[in-house]
Amino acid sequence: MRWFIAVLLIVSIGGPAAANTVKRADFKMLTTQHLYNLCAARKTDPLRDKAIYFCFGFFTGAAHYHRGLGAGRGHIVCPPANRQLSRIEAVRAFVAWARVNRKYMTEKPIDGLVRALVAKWPCPAK
Asked: Which of 29, 36, 115, 119 could form a disulfide with 98 if both were Cys (CB 3.0 to 4.6 A apart)?
């Protein structure tokens, strides 16, 4: 139940005007725009639940990959005090970034995600 409530909180990221209507094509995840459409689904969207779960699944996979990279080469995203980010924090950061960085919407979804998280939590220069 806690998971479901946490997923529902994702909708609090922004008001309905900021969210897009989810289309079935968004689930193909070809662009950052598709990822944004899924992660910013409106409460009233009939595909909202599937979109939010898909969004969280994508972020989970990206987080596992990032941890794997960090095991030997260093991280590319550095949250404060080396704490692990929650998925909802990462999704909120991505959605906020995507709203103001529309020029990247045609890039691959993982590229948009990384751009957003690096912008929010950059690693210190070595």
From this structure: 36
